[in-house]
Structure formats: structure tokens, C-alpha cells
Amino acid sequence: MSSKNIELDHKDMVHDSAFDYYGKRLATASSDSTVKVINIGGASTPSQLLATLSGHYGPVWRVAWAHPKFGSLLASCGYDGRVIVWKEGAAGQWSQAHVFDNHKSSVNSIAWAPYDLGLSLACGSSDGSISMMTMRPDGGWDSATIERAHPVGVMAVSWAPANALGSIVGSGELVQKLVSGGIDSVVRVWAFVSGSWKLEYALPSEMHTNCVRDVSWAPVLGLAKSTIASASEDGKVVIWTKGKEGDKWEGKVMHDFEAPAWRVSWSLTGNILSVAAGSDNITLWKEASDGQWEKVTKIES
């Protein structure tokens, strides 16, 4: 398999990258205060810089594409406490469709809700709170906040699949839940109940001994359980599972990388977990039939 280097043209460290829904474009976030949008190109065509988006005053930590049913929208968050929703207009021109600056310090993580729930963005901040920005039918935005979600700082947020466990996709039974990880080394699950966000579970805190850098809720495709992965500065990646409503979450260490685990990301089918750990190490993991997790490949940079 031939590899392809993509020239990003950032002037400083790149913290995040995200493919759009179709896998054709890549957005990148950098300490140089910009977001770049790159056309990936094909086997014989080079990648091409499509846009450089400037609007942050400091490092940009994360980027996230909205579902294309809402148009060409990209969100970014940064050290400046701002969350910017960028909109692509005609001829590839990007503009700031909305700027949220209701956080008092760095916004470390953003995640768009499953598209079935509408256009809604969760934001986790060093000020300890999680905010939810939801676009109204008239184009304005409503916001809801989980105060003191992780009082010393929120590092990561991830949405649960919108379909209830065991329900038929499209049955109309939608779920609004989030998982968050914090500097307090705790993983928490939140549920939207009776018009407000409430803590549903605080997962056993002894599993991690340092800052939880990332959390990722796996897609549920006809499975009878919910699965969350969490990655910590302590080097451990923990897999949390829960059966039907009323069951408890159970966590087990998938692997100790003995170096900070930065990011965890599920494949679209939810059966492969990608882990970024240490300085230059990405590995892919799969659950074996006996319930143990095994490494399926290592990606060399």
C-alpha cells in the first residue's frame, strides 16, 4: 500500500485533524491559531489547500465536521475559550456562522450530536463546565450548560448513539446522552431528562489515576450493550461496557501503554478502536471472541 504525505502548511504544532463525512476533505487545528481545510486528492492528484480559517486567538485544539444534511459546517475550539462554527458558502468561501464565547477559559473538546438529534454541539472547557449549543429552526442558537461537570476542567466529550439500546433504527425512540472525561481522572455519563441535563453515572474513579484526555462512545449497531473507551495520561485505555437499562457500567483496562494515551476513536462499525499514545504511536485494537482485546495493527509514522 502506498503512503501519501499531505502538506499542511501550518506554522506550529497540529493538535487535531478530522475527515468530512465523505472522506474527501481534511480539517486541521494548530497552535498557529488557524484551521486549514485540505482536499485529499487521489492516487495521482496532490492534496490541495482549500482554505485557511482565522478567528482564534491562540492554539486551536479540536475540529469537528457537522453532518452534511446541515450543509458544509465545521466547528473549532481553542485556548481562547471560543468555539467557532464555520460555514462554507459558494465557491469555497468560508465564514464565521456563529461564535460562542460563553466559556471562561480554554475549550478543550467539541462534538456534534448524532444528526437525528438536530444540529447540536457539546463543548467541554477548562472552566469545569460542558455547554450544549443547539440551533433553532429560525437559525438562532439555544445553549444549555452542565456546571461543574468536572470542577477542575473538562478534557473530552462524546455523544452516545441516538438510538436506544436494542431498538430498531428509525423506531422513533431517541436517546440524548453524553460521556465526559476530566482532569479529575473521572469519566461521567450525562443524560437529557425532562428538559435538562443530569448526571446518570460517575464511572468507578479508581480505573484512572491521572487526567482523562479523551473519551469515545462506540456506535451501537444492533449490539446488546453500550461501550465507551477512555484514554488517560496514566497510560491506560479503559473499555467500559453496560448492558440493558438498570445494569451497572463495568470497566476493564484494555492496555497500559506506559506513556500518555491521548486519543481514542471508534471505527464506523464500532468494532475497531484506534489509540494514539506516547509520542508517535497509533495502534488499532479489536475485541476477540473471549472478550480480550488484541492489537490488530500498528501504524508507523
Automatic annotation (TrEMBL):
The record ties this protein, via Pfam families, to:
WD40 (PF00400)
SMART domains found in the cross-reference section: WD40 (SM00320)
Sorted alphabetically, which InterPro entries does this protein's record hold?
A: Sec13/Seh1_fam (IPR037363), WD40/YVTN_repeat-like_dom_sf (IPR015943), WD40_repeat_dom_sf (IPR036322), WD40_rpt (IPR001680)
Q: Name one GO cellular component term.
A: nuclear pore outer ring
GO-annotated molecular function: structural molecule activity
- UniProt WD repeat ranges: 53-87, 205-240
State the name under which the record lists this protein.
Answer: Uncharacterized protein
